[in-house]
Write a structure and sequence with these properties.
The structure holds 2 protein chains of 2 kinds. Chain A is an alpha+beta fold. Chain A has helices at about 5-25, 40-50; strands at about 55-60, 65-70, 75-80, 90. A 4-stranded antiparallel β-sheet of chain A has the order 1-2-3-4, covered by helices on one side. In chain A, strand 1 (about 55-60) and strand 2 form a beta hairpin. Residues about 20-25 of chain A have low confidence and may be disordered. Chain B has helices spanning about 5-25, 35-55, 65, 70-85, 95-115, 125-155, 160-165. In chain B, helix 2 (about 35-55) packs across helix 5 and helix 5 packs antiparallel against helix 6. The radius of gyration of chain B is 18 Å and the shape is elongated. Chain B starts with 5 loop residues before the first helix and ends in a 12-residue tail after the last helix. Classes of the chains: A alpha+beta, B mainly alpha. The interface between A and B is medium-sized, with 25 and 23 residues.
């Protein structure tokens, strides 16, 4: 292998590593939540948490669950998973949580 | 001859351990690994800050002024590497010197962005999380290139450069080497 060939190979490997990082899920938990038609709206979850005195920063989908970043009523940083059908809290490490 | 002083060696292997452990604690995707991941970031920042200070005040081969080469010299060295006629450097070679700067800066920015992502102000902010992830991945790529560079240069110069980072000792300069 020439030095130039080695260099090209390294660059290709570097590009692959960079892109692979972006494709994976955070995956602290997964939910068995079925098709999206049966899910409740994110806004409804946000409203529910707001009623508890939480300051919701962001809600996103992760592993079929809703992942919430918020400050709770005591101002603590919270990262919590909820089942998108039942809004039941999902424990960390749960696999295909039924809700 | 002694090239790498004790502080440089301890800083090198501590930072390497922090980066490796931070990578592992991120990839296991366990909530229980997060506190350790955070402390590794703080430790890395402390090591990097001390290394930067040492880069201005330490002995000859620890100094940025000794190994951060002008772009023209870096280019000339890179061309010489491609031709297979690069000279041996007792300290960092021009490409290696810039790799040190890139590694320290990227590790510092990765640590800082991680820190930012767990402040109340930026909690949940997508751009902070994305930035942290990109910097973390970039750091892993740089580490891979750094290790490849060390292996290649060790082979070219018939000198185990990783062992030299443990002992601090390198072969004294011969005619044609850059001291």
């Amino acid at each position: 292998m020439t030095t130039t060939g080695l260099f090209r190979g390294l660059c290709a490997a570097a590009a692959c590593t960079l892109m692979a990082g972006g494709a994976q899920a955070t995956g602290f938990a997964t939910c068995d939540s079925g098709p999206r038609e049966g899910w409740q709206a994110q806004d409804k979850l946000a409203a529910m948490l707001k009623d508890k005195g939480w300051q919701v920063r962001r809600i996103k989908e992760d592993g079929g669950c809703y992942e919430v970043y918020a400050l709770d009523d005591k101002g603590q940083r919270m990262e919590v998973y909820f089942h998108p059908r039942t809004f039941a809290p999902v424990p960390y490490g749960a696999k295909d949580h039924k809700g | 001859m002694k090239v790498w002083d004790r502080f440089v060696r301890v800083a090198h292997w501590s930072l390497a351990a922090c980066v490796l452990a931070a990578w592992i604690t991120a990839e296991v995707k366990l909530k229980s690994a997060e506190p350790l991941h955070e402390w590794l970031g703080y430790a890395a920042l402390a090591v990097i800050a001390l290394r930067f200070a040492w880069g201005w005040s330490g002995p000859r081969y620890a100094r940025f002024g000794q190994f951060v080469a002008a772009p023209s010299r870096v280019l000339a060295y890179a061309k010489a590497v491609l031709r297979g006629g690069e000279p041996r450097y007792v300290g960092h070679n021009p490409l290696g010197g810039w790799m040190i700067v890139a590694l320290l800066s990227t590790a510092a920015l990765a640590s800082l962005s991680g820190w930012l992502s767990i402040t109340d102000r930026f909690w949940g902010a997508e751009w902070v999380q994305e930035t942290h992830e990109v910097l973390g991945n970039a750091l892993i790529v740089l580490v891979a290139l750094h290790v490849a560079g060390v292996l290649y240069t060790s082979w070219r110069q018939r000198e185990n450069l990783a062992a030299a980072m443990l002992s601090g000792v390198k072969r004294p300069p011969e005619p044609g080497d850059v001291a």
